[in-house]
Design a protein that fits this description.
- By secondary structure, the chain is α+β, with helices and mostly antiparallel strands.
- Helices cover about 20% and strands about 25% of the residues.
- The protein has 15 helices and 44 strands.
- Helix 4 packs antiparallel against helix 5, helix 9 runs antiparallel to helix 15 and helix 10 runs antiparallel to helix 14.
């Protein structure tokens, strides 16, 4: 009888288990075994993998309550709204029938119904034997032998962090868009120097604009920690007790509330709390705000803000610490479903008018007054002092280019569209005068001229079709008043004129002025004058000679590269490649300003880099700062990642070396000469046989007549990384037979023998940071592997450099080493 009671009590206890999520008995849920899978919208009973307590689920969530598109995600499974805290494929929704596979070899990958890969877990190093959804909200791939997490969602976050999660230097959160899970314009980043920043990005690239919030914490070892017992988010130093608490105010208990922190679609980083479900819950609980940063996202001072918080031509104002985006009078949102899309005028803004036609600006437009409103980050093209408000309004009204005039303390600042970072705040004591439509832009002259009006208006219209009608009228008149013989001759002549005219118009219409980019087209004479007859030479390289030049009335300093040889098919190849180069935009690339294609001349105009090349920086008389060198290495790696993986067309540089890395005013690394390989003659370009590049940096596959891939750039980067570490050239001919003559050989010998101090000699800063030194050295050795398939991608290089991904012990670089 007692045994029966024990059995009944055991089954009764099992029924109560869901009400006790932290019970040790909750571990009856099994791990995910190799070979298991999930289907999006399928009929399988297994639609998600639960954590032991059932608090979290990993699987597919339908997007916008439809059964056609799915998100691979992690969510709170016990609350009615199933709040998503991690997602993998926001930019590429999975169609119904897609399959997530945990493969036999330990990979986690998502394929569409046609078997094409949508997403996979990146940077998995080592053996994976099982997966698990943990009660912390972390999904992990685990090596059973040593319980090491080979991959985890906590280290690859989307827009949210949870208690117990840590953001190490190099980590990043990206916002989603307001109505979907596509990548938004806002980022939270923990920089390698320990600073926590929020910034916007130039979609679809990863170019980060200046921060609109910064914690101003700086130092080695700082990271962001979400405490699992107190729910306090802080910036802490792993080497000491120094910390800065971000969480402020009253904090609901972690025992009674769920907590999460998210970078919202509007760019505000917010910590939320929500009551946990209990037996007395009615299901109406919701997430409430604990704290957020920044307090006023609309007001920040920077010149590099992109389109601002709310988009171009918009106005941002704060309501309860949240930005509200609005359009000025007579403007509407570019995307009505996205309040961050910016605004456009809903009238034809043509500031110029013809005095002779009677089109007075007072009739076409009026000046709308906006109090306490400004667009401070927009370029002012004209400033006038000692103006009255009336004079400022009139100055903009009668100006062809002016769309907005800001007035403050007698200063009138005229601006043209687009304007950015618009903001409104009471008490800032600035006015904006906005030029808007007076009601009807299709103005008709109320006092027509007394002279007879031409019955054929097409003759005075530059439109091609109307000009054809004019020519036809003239031909008909001549035919009626001339002999047949002269008519035939005249008709033939007119036919030839019309044919040549149409050909000329067609060529004019079809000729692109800037290849659908914002590049400026210069004449050869322009650049010859700007360079003072190509006299001020900055340097020479495989692509040509670089000259210093001064452009425009303001004598803007630029660098003009005169290419040696260009592809035989001329314009088509040149324009195609320039279209690709002109559309690149990344903080670690040298910006192409313009070009010249005139007869046999092909020139490129770049922004000027004031601190010269990395070669002169590294190999000068004094050894540069260690932290500055490592930041330069990180920047180069990010720039190559952009060229290899984030451009619309993949770009292989083929000649990565210190001479092609330039440094701007802040010593930020900028890759130059990217994308120029195809602009050169065939004997210089990338092929399966012709070797390109510079001695010491050339990957082994060039010599084996193997197909060239992005891995040649990885090899060159590895060699250059060793140069950055050691501050010496990769080949020192004057050393003769010395073991140090070939840097790649010597560096591996020092690593294998544990003599890292020999590489940096008396560099105290590097020796005080042996952990980073060893990590960078191992990354470099992985990059210079003789076998291309062993070299990591540049994206993985970035993760390893920044300490986000573990760097395993590299093998000997050469396949046939002893």
């Amino acid at each position: 009888m007692a045994d029966n009671l024990d059995l009944i009590f055991f089954f009764f206890f099992l029924l109560l288990l869901p009400h006790y999520p932290f019970s040790a008995f909750a571990q009856i849920y099994s791990n995910v075994s190799l070979g298991e899978s999930l289907s999006a919208g399928g009929r399988s009973r297994t639609t998600s993998w639960l954590s032991p307590s059932g608090e979290f689920a990993f699987g597919f969530q339908s997007i916008n309550n439809t059964d056609d598109a799915f998100l691979l995600a992690i969510w709170y499974d016990k609350i009615p709204d199933k709040t998503i805290i991690w997602y993998a494929n926001g930019d590429t929704p999975a169609p119904r029938g897609s399959k997530l596979q945990f493969t036999i070899d330990g990979n986690l990958q998502l394929n569409n119904p046609q078997g094409e890969e949508i997403w996979r877990a990146q940077s998995i190093l080592g053996v994976v034997t099982y997966a698990a959804m943990l009660d912390t909200g972390n999904f992990v791939l685990v090596d059973r032998r040593n319980s090491v997490h080979r991959w985890e969602s906590f280290k690859n976050p989307s827009d949210t962090i949870l208690p117990s999660q840590i953001l190490e230097p190099g980590s990043m959160l990206s916002s989603r868009q307001s109505t979907n899970y596509f990548r938004g314009r806002f980022q939270l980043r923990v920089l390698t120097d320990g600073n926590l920043v929020l910034n916007t990005v130039a979609l679809p690239t990863n170019y980060a604009y200046d921060a609109y919030y910064a914690s101003n914490t700086s130092g080695s070892g700082y990271r962001v920690l979400f405490d699992e017992s107190t729910a306090i988010i802080s910036i802490q130093c792993r080497y000491g007790i120094t910390s800065w608490d971000l969480t402020v105010g009253s904090i609901p208990s972690i025992k009674t509330h769920y907590h999460r922190a998210t970078i919202d679609f509007n760019g505000v980083f917010t910590q939320y709390a929500r009551p946990k479900m209990t037996s007395s819950s009615n299901g109406n609980e919701s997430w409430s705000i604990v704290w957020s940063i920044p307090d006023d996202i609309c007001f920040f001072n920077s010149q590099d803000v992109g389109e601002g918080i709310c988009g171009y031509n918009s106005i941002c104002r704060i309501v309860q610490n949240r930005p509200v985006c609005e359009c000025p009078t007579k403007y509407t949102f570019v995307d009505p479903n996205n309040k961050l899309s910016g605004c456009k005028p809903d009238f034809n803004l043509q500031g110029c008018y013809d005095n002779g036609s009677g089109r007075s600006p007072e009739i076409l437009y009026r000046m709308e007054e906006l109090l306490d409103t400004d667009w401070p980050s927009s370029g002012v093209y004209q400033k006038r002092a000692l103006y009255t408000e009336s004079e400022c309004q009139k100055a903009c009204l009668y100006d062809c280019q002016c769309a907005i005039a800001n007035f403050r303390d007698g200063n009138c600042l005229k601006k043209s569209l687009p304007v950015r970072n618009g903001r409104h705040k009471s008490g800032v004591n600035v006015k904006a005068f906005l030029k808007v439509s007076a009601g009807n832009n299709t103005y008709r002259n109320p006092n027509p001229p007394s002279v007879p009006v031409d019955d054929n208006p097409g003759c005075s219209n530059p439109n091609v079709e109307k000009k054809d009608r004019c020519l036809f009228s003239v031909v008909a008149a001549v035919l009626l008043g001339s002999s047949i013989f002269f008519n035939l001759i005249f008709l033939a002549a007119i036919f030839m004129v019309v044919l040549m005219y149409h050909k000329k118009v067609k060529e004019k219409v079809q000729k692109p002025s800037s290849f659908e980019t914002n590049l400026h087209s210069f004449t050869y004479k322009d650049l010859e004058e700007a360079t003072d007859g190509f006299k001020n030479e900055l340097g020479r390289g495989a692509f040509g000679v670089v000259y210093k030049a001064f452009l425009g009335l303001d004598s803007k300093l630029v660098a003009v590269k005169k290419l040696n040889k260009v592809v035989q098919d001329g314009d088509k190849g040149f324009k195609t490649e320039l279209r690709t180069i002109g559309q690149t935009h990344h903080k670690n690339l040298v910006k192409l300003v313009g070009f010249c294609e005139e007869q046999q001349h092909r020139l490129l105009v770049y922004e000027f880099m004031s601190n010269g090349s990395l070669a002169s920086f590294l190999f000068g008389t004094s050894r540069p700062d260690w932290n500055q060198r490592t930041q330069i290495a990180f920047g180069i790696a990010r720039g190559l990642t952009y060229l290899h993986e984030e451009c619309s067309i993949q770009i292989i540089h083929c000649d990565i070396k210190p001479q092609n890395i330039l440094l701007d005013d802040c010593y930020t690394a900028r890759i130059s000469d990217f994308g120029l390989a195809k602009l050169l003659m065939t004997d210089q370009s990338r092929t399966n046989t012709a070797i390109r590049g510079t001695k010491g940096y050339v990957a082994p596959e060039w010599f084996r007549h193997m197909p060239i891939t992005v891995k040649v750039d990885v090899y060159s980067f590895g060699v250059m990384l060793l140069e950055i570490i050691c501050c010496r050239k990769c080949v020192e001919l004057e050393m003769g037979g010395d073991e140090r003559a070939i840097l790649t050989d010597w560096a591996y010998d020092c690593y294998r023998e544990g003599r890292l101090d020999a590489l940096v000699e008396n560099d105290i800063e590097a020796m005080n940071n042996m952990g980073r030194l060893e990590r960078l050295l191992k990354v470099a050795i992985w990059c210079i592997q003789e076998e291309p398939s062993l070299r990591p991608t540049m994206r993985k290089v970035v993760l390893m450099l920044e300490g986000i991904t573990e760097v395993s012990v590299p093998p000997h670089p050469y396949l046939f080493s002893c």
